């Protein structure tokens, strides 16, 4: 599968907040976490499978699949910054 590049434009201010609830600066990990969460919603809403990084038995990578082969990571885990 060829990598795809997406360019997104924020239509509103982006608020990510820090551990004290302050939104003085953009926190890239918070932004990526939010994108991942919404991508999981989209994938599951369309009937696809997304792993759960917080659950031991449904977390990527799938150890039964070879790296760089289909099924090693779910489509959500393929999302990279
Ligand atoms: Zn995954």
UniProtKB/TrEMBL annotation:
Family matches, as InterPro entries: CRISPR-assoc_prot_TM1795, RAMP_III_fam
Domain CRISPR type III-associated protein: 7-59
Keyword terms: Antiviral defense, Plasmid
One Pfam family from the record: RAMPs
Keyword Cytoplasm on entry: no
GO biological process, any: defense response to virus
Protein name: CRISPR type III-associated protein domain-containing protein
Organism: Thermus thermophilus
């Amino acid at each position: 599968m060829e990598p795809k590049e997406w360019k997104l434009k924020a239509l509103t201010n982006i608020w990510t907040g820090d551990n004290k609830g302050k939104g003085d600066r953009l926190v890239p990990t918070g932004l990526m976490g939010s994108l991942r969460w919404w991508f999981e919603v989209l994938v599951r809403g369309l009937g696809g499978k997304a792993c759960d990084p917080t659950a031991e038995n449904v977390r990527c990578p799938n150890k039964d699949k070879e790296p760089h082969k289909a099924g090693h990571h779910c489509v959500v885990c393929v999302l990279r910054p």
